[in-house]
Design goal:
Blueprint lengths: L5 H10 L6 E3 L2 E3 L6 E5 L6 E6 L3 H17 L7 H17 L1 H12 L3 H22 L6 E2 L6 E9 L2 E5 L5 H14 L3 E5 L6 H12 L7 E3 L4 H10 L5 E5 L2 H13 L4 E5 L5 E4 L6 H13 L11 E5 H15 L20 H16 L3 E4 L3 E2 L7 E2 L2 E4 L6 H4 L6 E7 L2 H9 L6 E5 L3 H10 L4 E4 L32 E9 L1
Helix pairs in contact: 2-8, 3-5, 3-7, 4-5, 4-7, 5-6, 10-11
The structure holds nicotinamide-adenine-dinucleotide.
Length: 497
């Protein structure tokens, strides 16, 4: 536990040396074009640094470096036990540098420093070490052949992997990809979001310090439509893994088809239902979870519980508990260790969230908490956690991913209606069910079209369980051994004896 105060963090922020260059073949480097873009902190609107604005020329350099390194076998053919050791050292270096990484993350995207330090950095480190620890414990297969044949079913690294990631959990989303991608022996080009590139840039050097050879992990900051698109269209990228919006995920599928049919694995948006039945075992716990499900990380969470489905018979009793619980989630300066709601990532995202709040009003939903921008005097981008009651699932605020702290409360009268509303969305990332009836819990969980279902809690799971979406929330899975499937090709070798 750190005992750093807000003043300590502010002091460190002033002294922090921030690297904004790309990392290619083991070296920090400016973009070929020498272009940069401003990296503005949403905490207070101040310029943190200028960041290399990479484009197709940099993508080419990084892909070349990754390809040469991959083909050399220096990492791809290293004994799994040795890759394991390097991955564990990489994870350890994240922890050694936890305070610096946490500070970069908070300054860059506005989340509370306590979350960066206690959730994001340890979660990222765990994703690296968990995958590394597994890699020398996964065996290949021998087919059930006739006596005079030997059939080997082996997994090989796919080769060059491009990983394009979002800004809401910049380091953790990157490491959910890097853990299995690197452990399986691939060379990787990581493209962080232009809104939050700093921790990705920093950890590139830590990978080399951990003993991962130069060229195995390259980091290209820059815009999606420039360097992201160049990677997605590149003929020598074997696999593209992505976390981000459904809109861009669909575009990436087109790029894959237009280029080399690179394997493409997508983790996209969500509009997750949190269903509270009248027989929930503990309404107070359900209310507190409903509040944190929309306020944690400023609601900038792909699995945010943004639709609260409440059985009508308890709604009048339950909603005040949620409103009360949400009062514990108050925007404040993210560098204050007591803050639990920080700034939204930038002005554009804040305006998007505020426009959804307007749309809730316009569609006739009833505002019962929050609803406004706050802390303007800070120069940052803060919005109050907000609840709309009386929402119909057809309203825009119930259908579209807001990616901010705006909760829609929807009443239902039966199990069937709850399931039907819950599934009435293009997304299928997560869902939760609150009931003391075990059959109802199981039957509802089975009926929900979502990649993760939580019962009597919100947001459970760890590295051991796969994470990903049904429907337009994506394909493939991050975390768990299932994630390894995305980074390996299966080979059948059939030998006549
Ligand atoms: P985004 O789709 O706008 O951007 C994601 C990444 O794609 C960024 O790095 C961006 O630069 C890049 N990009 C944009 N246009 C591109 C293009 N034409 N070609 C290649 N790359 C391009 O998403 P965002 O706003 O950064 O993140 C928020 C979204 O991420 C939300 O929809 C959220 O639900 C989703 N998300 C999903 C998960 C999950 O695991 N399913 C986790 C976190 C966030």
């Amino acid at each position: 536990m750190t005992t750093l105060t807000r003043a300590d963090w502010e002091q460190r922020a002033r002294e922090l040396k921030i690297e904004g260059r790309a990392y290619i073949n083991g070296e920090y480097t400016a973009a070929v074009s020498n272009e940069t873009f401003e990296c503005i902190s949403p905490v207070d609107g101040r310029l943190l640094t200028r960041v290399a604005s990479c484009d197709a020329a940099d993508a080419q350099r990084a892909v070349d470096s990754a390809r040469v390194t991959f083909n050399s076998g220096v990492w791809s053919r290293l004994a799994p036990a040795k890759r394991k050791s390097a991955m564990i050292r990489f994870a350890a270096l994240l922890k050694v540098n936890a305070e610096e990484l946490a500070l970069l993350e908070t300054l860059d995207m506005g989340k509370p420093i306590s979350d960066s330090l206690h959730i994001d950095v340890p979660g990222a480190a765990q994703a690296l070490s968990w995958s590394g620890e597994a890699i020398d414990k996964i065996y290949d297969e021998v087919a059930t052949t006739p006596h005079d044949q030997l059939g080997l079913v082996t997994r090989e690294p796919v080769g060059v992997v491009a990983a394009i990631v979002p800004w809401n959990f910049p380091l953790m989303m990157a490491c959910w990809k890097l853990g299995p991608a690197l452990s399986t022996g691939n060379s990787v080009i990581l493209k962080p979001s232009e809104k939050s590139p700093l921790t990705a840039i920093r950890i590139a050097a830590l990978a080399v310090e951990a003993g991962i050879p130069a060229g195995v992990l390259n980091v290209l900051p820059g815009y999606g439509h420039t360097v992201g698109k160049a990677l997605a269209l590149h003929m020598d990228v074997d696999t593209l893994v992505f976390t981000g919006s459904t809109k861009i995920a669909k575009q990436l599928m087109i790029y894959s088809g237009e280029s080399n049919m690179k394997r493409i694995w997508l983790e996209a948006g969500g509009k997750s239902p949190n269903i509270v039945f009248a027989d929930a075992p503990d309404l107070q716990a359900a209310a507190e979870a409903a509040a944190s499900a929309i306020a944690f990380n400023q609601g900038e969470v792909c699995t945010a519980g943004s639709r609260l489905l409440v059985e009508r018979s308890i709604k009048e009793r339950f909603l005040p508990l949620v409103i009360e619980a949400l009062k514990a989630w108050k925007p404040g300066n993210p560098l204050d260790p007591d803050t639990n709601v920080g700034a939204l990532v930038d002005t554009q995202q804040m305006n998007t969230v505020l426009s959804y709040i307007e749309s809730g009003h316009a569609d006739g939903a009833k505002l019962v908490a929050g609803g406004k921008r706050t802390l303007q005097e800070s120069g940052g981008t803060y919005v109050e956690p907000t609840i709309f009651d009386g929402v119909s699932n057809a309203m825009k605020i119930a259908q579209e991913e807001i990616f901010g702290p705006v909760l829609s409360v929807i009443a239902f009268d039966s199990v069937e209606e709850a399931i039907s509303i819950a599934n009435d969305t293009p997304y299928g990332l997560a869902a939760a069910v609150w009931t003391a009836n075990i059959s109802k819990a199981h039957l509802t969980a089975k009926a929900l079209r979502a990649g993760s279902v939580w019962v009597n809690q919100y947001d459970g799971g760890d590295m051991t369980a796969p994470f990903g979406g049904f429907k337009q929330s994506g394909n493939g899975r991050d975390k768990s051994l299932h994630a390894f499937d995305k980074y390996t090709e299966l080979k059948s070798t059939w030998i006549k004896l």
